[in-house]
Fold these 2 entries.
Entry 1:
Amino acid sequence: GAVVSQHPSWVICKSGTSVKIECRSLDFQATTMFWYRQFPKQSLMLMATSNEGSKATYEQGVEKDKFLINHASLTLSTLTVTSAHPEDSSFYICSAITGTGGNEQFFGPGTRLTVL
Amino acid sequence: AQSVTQLGSHVSVSEGALVLLRCNYSSSVPPYLFWYVQYPNQGLQLLLKYTTGATLVKGINGFEAEFKKSETSFHLTKPSAHMSDAAEYFCAVSRNSGNTPLVFGKGTRLSVIA
């Protein structure tokens, strides 16, 4: 089956610093990746849609200047949390779909971000 | 717009008992429905999905779900709970078979009592 990895799996940073999270499709090419955010004991909420070679589409209420998304290749999308604050602490999960228009999203294992 | 409601944020069953996790959806277009399981600090694993065709869908680990259009429901069941089933379960809906973002319910935590 298709595998999606995320790196790092967890990160702790100081308030005001920037953190980059990578999402990779290991054995398939992903023209589209989605970034979700999950607060403790809550559901996943879509943050943005990342398309290879174009600008990401952000959901309403998500600050695009704070959550920078780059999808530079068919196997890699990155989410950079700029000037992180404690309220950005969350579980970030990416998913990817194949370029052939497959009927399943493959989820990464998630990245837990803690901002002190 | 699409939405998902999962009834019961926490369900507790005895080992060997029937598992029933409820999910109702709202969709203006024919829905594609999914159940995912999440273990602590891990990503999501697909249990099963309904796209078209047979309304009773069988998934992994002995789970199954039935799509009932008239009731706008997609409840998840398993005849006999196992300790390893303890996890968070999410129901999700999509506008198509998976190429669009999923809208998730709030999740149901399943506890299995020995």
Entry 2:
Amino acid sequence: DGGITQSPKYLFRKEGQNVTLSCEQNLNHDAMYWYRQDPGQGLRLIYYSQIVNDFQKGDIAEGYSVSREKKESFPLTVTSAQKNPTAFYLCASSIVGKGGRETQYFGPGTRLLVL
Amino acid sequence: AQTVTQSQPEMSVQEAETVTLSCTYDTSESDYYLFWYKQPPSRQMILVIRQEAYKQQNATENRFSVNFQKAAKSFSLKISDSQLGDAAMYFCALLNYGGSQGNLIFGKGTKLSVKP
């Protein structure tokens, strides 16, 4: 089946620890994205990547880092510099067409909790 | 600045009836996409329907349809014959055409309850 997978489903972080959230897609999409969702809120963009080995900061990139070494994979690292990491994290992907980045499809999400 | 506003934090509908969720937006671009996404309790975001701004015809997907009023910058979602499985958060989102100009902007969502 084609789709987007995220792992783990739940992740616990200790103070001062870096953690990495996985996102993989087999849709052959060029662009991938990471969003953060807080309770009662819409989604806010953390980072996005339109092509391998290139990525751009979104609205709330501080305390996060990403890499895009393969087209299929876009892992997100939540660093110790992110002081309030408890949230639901969603990964998405899209094609890049004539109009730029187009309809985004989402993975099932990862819930990050701080111990 | 681009904004998306959903003025109804919560809505309720009786099973088998029709409900309309409201969304207004603001953008200085003339070409853009608008979306409705559904987020059920599982929290996965599911695309419900998409509208290209250059198309005058309102998009329809089975029981879901939109009323797109470009001049008024309004993009409402109508759900017909509501089912229990329609209960979810619904998010309206805007994406400017020509991707590098901006990103997907979400409203804060409307929580839809369906009563049996």
